[in-house]
Amino acid sequence: MKKVKTASFLALLLAFCIQGTAFKADGYKVGDEVQDFSLKGIDGKMVSLSGQKEVKGYIIAFTCNTCPVAKTYEDRIIALNAKYAAKGYPVIAIQPNDVNASPGDSFQAMQQRAKSKGYTFPYLSDETQNITKAFGATNTPHMFVVRKEGEKFKVAYIGAIDNNQGDPQAASQKYVENAVNELLAGKTAVTTPSARAVGCGIKWKNA
Amino acid sequence: MKQRRWYLIIPLFLLALTIRAQSVKVVKYEDLERLVRVKDDTLNVVNFWATWCGPCVKELPQFEALNKTGASKKVRVLLVSMDDVKTLDNKVKPFVKQRKLKSKVVLLNEPDLNTWVDKLVPEWSGALPMTLIVNEKNQVRKFIGKPVKEGELQSIINQL
Description:
CATH topology of chain B: Glutaredoxin
Strand content of chain A: 15-25%
Largest sheet of chain B: 6 strands, mixed
Number of strands of chain B: 7
Number of helices of chain B: 6
Keywords (chain B): Redox-active center
Largest sheet of chain A: 8 strands, mixed
Low-confidence stretches of chain B: none
Radius of gyration of chain A: 19 Å
Strand order of the largest sheet of chain A: 2-1-5-4-3-7-8-9
CATH superfamily of chain B: Glutaredoxin
GO molecular function (chain B): antioxidant activity; oxidoreductase activity
Order of helices and strands of chain A: HEEEHEHEHEEEHEE
Number of domains of chain A: 1
Order of helices and strands of chain B: HEHEHEHEHEEEH
InterPro entries (chain B): AhpC/TSA, Thioredoxin-like_sf, Thioredoxin_CS, Thioredoxin_domain, Thioredoxin_ResA/DsbE_sf
Radius of gyration of chain B: 17 Å
Oligomer: heterodimer
CATH architecture of chain B: 3-Layer(aba) Sandwich
Organism (chain B): Dyadobacter soli
Low-confidence stretches of chain A: 12-25
Mean pLDDT of chain A: 90
CATH topology of chain A: Glutaredoxin
Structural class of chain A: alpha/beta
Distance between the termini of chain B: 50 Å
Helix content of chain B: 40-55%
Protein name (chain B): AhpC/TSA family protein
Largest interface: A-B, 22 and 22 residues
Shape of chain A: globular
Strand content of chain B: 15-25%
Distance between the termini of chain A: 43 Å
């Protein structure tokens, strides 16, 4: 009898552990602390969150060259940096796709794209896809607004840029802008901490 | 003599089928929900895709094959295009025609996912492609948030 009890207890414990890891695999949730990373930018320099001392946070954009949705949002990402970098929320763009699955997202192609569009922010390559997994990014474009708290960075917003892919002027909800505006106004939690939009699934390496 | 009339009806019937296969109806969320939540014993295989999504286009033949030959269980394939409704006539319809898609195709005109996704697939981030296999009556539900590999769809359905 005791054996049975121990066995069921162990099974329960195991179930909890599995569930625990499953949650972790889903990536950061709003409020979570972000582990700093170091990824190579298109200029060859390594970029990390702790690299810029003056910031209040970052607008992190998982985006790429090839996804049609990412392309329609590209100008809006550039505009976000133009509007918020000076206010303390610069953009960091991360290209998450496996370049074998998506050759148009190669390091060289990233350099060309950034040059032709005049990116004013770092465009980083997540070659191992580990950072993408840590964040739990699933599609491009996928945005994460992180807020600096002491030396830590905490997730304040996850999701879409706005609610109108086709027409930025017609968007009734500008999620990222609203979130950053609220953070700049001193809030620590934003009104809409997450929102979805159709995007391209990230192209993962073959496991 | 009476029997001969069938020779007239059959081609007409086949023609009607082809016409039906190539039409793409624009639907709202309520329509989609009705299609997905049918209370019968057939497994609904609902694939969310778009003409601009490479991996989606690549996996479509698997859904077409399933629609054509079926599986170990009764299945009903529904291809839900997430394309912009403005591209219905110049992109989606020509695509469906050119690929000779036989499965039922609808265009879901609900670009703001936040108004409906939680009601149907809360697990979904919006990344395409996405597949939902569901039968509410028998409480079967499987969310696939990434492309299915060759042969994967059949084996997933066999395991349900």
